[in-house]
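Worked Example 4.2. Consider the chain below.
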Amino acid sequence: MQVDEGDRMLMSRTELLNKIATLTGGRSAEELIFGEDNMTTGASNDIEQATKLVRAMITRYGMTDDFDMVALETVRNQYLGGDASLACAQDTASKIDGRVVEIVKAAHQKAYKILKENETQLHKLAAYLLEKETITGEEFMSLLNHE
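Applying the procedure from the previous section yields the following structure tokens:
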């Protein structure tokens, strides 16, 4: 579980894509360490968050070339949970779904690649967490930078 460092109202496209890759990191680690056949349900909340974030990038934030700055979703009661509904044709909704899958898949591949390239540090961090249960950002960076 990550702890946010304060509320941020504005995030760039790059920051959002990195956040989505981070959200796919837990499942990527399971696949890398235990194999695809041994992934668990533990990533369900991260999968949901990543999917919602990508969908918002496309339908509300205008952050894809496919649809530019067109609002394709409306949010009602944003202060009471933010129910969202698409405001587009069915074929556009299908294109949105396809683009959501592409972006999440690319983020997942990015996370897996980063973890694979840093597998030694991943094992060190896992051992540290098994012993201590929590880790600060400073401790994390110290372990990460010392091969």
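The domain at 13-117 is CATH 1.20.58.760 (Methane Monooxygenase Hydroxylase; Chain G, domain 1). The CA atoms of residues 26 and 43 lie 6 Å apart. Compare this with Example 4.1 before moving on.
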